[in-house]
Amino acid sequence: MQSLDDLPAPSGTHPDLEPPAEPVRALRGRRTLHVVERIRDMIVSGELPAGGRISERMITEGLGVTRTPLREAFKILEAEGLVRIVPNRGAEVIHLSPADIEAAFEVLTGLESVAAELACTRGTAAEFAAIEARHDRMVACQRAGDLMGYFHLNQEIHQLIVDCAHNPALSRVYRTESARIRRYRYAGNRVGERWARAVMEHEQILDALKQRQGALLRELLRTHHINGWRVTRRVLEGELSPG
After folding, report:
1. Which among 190, 92, 105 is positioned nearest to 145, based on CA atoms?
2. Which residues pair with 242 in a beta bridge?
3. What is the pLDDT of residues 200-239, one digit of tens each?
4. How many of the other CB atoms lie within 10 Å of CB of 51?
5. Which residues are 228's β-sheet partners?
6. Under 8 Å CB-to-CB from 142, ≥6 apart: which residues?
7. pTM of the model
8. pLDDT at residue 174 above 50?
9. DSSP-derived secondary structure for 41-109
10. Which of 1, 122, 134, 163 has the smallest count of CB within 10 Å of its CB?
11. 188-198 pLDDT, tens per residue?
């Protein structure tokens, strides 16, 4: 009786040349996610300016990928609200007005206010420990001058605090709205004094969370957002000013 290994390969295939379909799909998925992350960082840092068209050739040559994962990445970024796919033009970076950004900050502030007391009530010690670990890494990035590394961890911390509320709808809305203005939140941290102050505010936020002081956490998060928007608005006004 033949074993499975002894059976001939299907016509047109060779077992040593064609990998199984599932690993191929997984590889393609990882490649697409890598492209998403790189383009997202380029948008956040301002390397790809708001309102500008994204050159497919520049991205494919720069990242060493084909157009297939690039176009799949564009679809993901469009769903996040970071790019717009325009017929016959390709993808361009979404441009938001200061009014749009301020409105989004108000929504995020409200969502975190709702999440704060729920997080202190429902969050687990393990979840708090995960947030604290990211906080320590974030501080290390700030000391090393790694703004992008700091920013990624900062965003994770805010999302994880909201996730501690154990309300999937709240987490989903927060994640979506936060993604839309990621570039503008990053811009505020480019101001040195704000960056240092934000770390101090995060120390207080973490302490309130660990002590399960919901009302205090709510106010600290609200103040943190207000301070962040104040600096971000100044940066945007400077970018929009003539000359």
Report:
1. 190
2. none
3. 999 999 999 999 999 999 999 999 999 988 888 888 777 6
4. 10
5. none
6. 150, 195, 196, 199
7. 0.79
8. yes
9. HHHHHTSS-TTPBPPHHHHHHHHT--HHHHHHHHHHHHHTTSEEEETTTEEEE----HHHHHHHHHHHH
10. 1
11. 777 777 888 99
* CA angle (203 as vertex; 198, 206 as ends), nearest 5: 120
C-beta atoms surrounding 212 within 10 Å: 14
Residue 63: closest CA among 55, 202, 186, 111:
55
Report which of 125, 124, 186 is spatially closest to residue 155, judged by C-alpha positions: 186
For β-strands 83-86 and 90-93, DSSP reports them as antiparallel
d(CA 178, CA 158): 10
Instruction: Report d(CA 70, CA 53) in Å as an integer.
Output: 14
The residue type at 32:
T
Write out the H or E segment, with its range, that includes residue 223: helix 214-240
Class of residue 150 by CB neighbours under 10 A (exposed 0-12, middle 13-18, buried 19+): buried
- Tell me: the pLDDT tens digits for 18-28? 445 455 455 56
Tally the residues of the chain. 243
Amino acid at 2: Q
Check: CB of residue 164 under 8 Å from CB of residue 208: no
b/e per residue, 109-148, with b = 16+ CB within 10 A? Answer: bebbebbbbbbbeebeeebbebbeebbebbeebbeeeebe
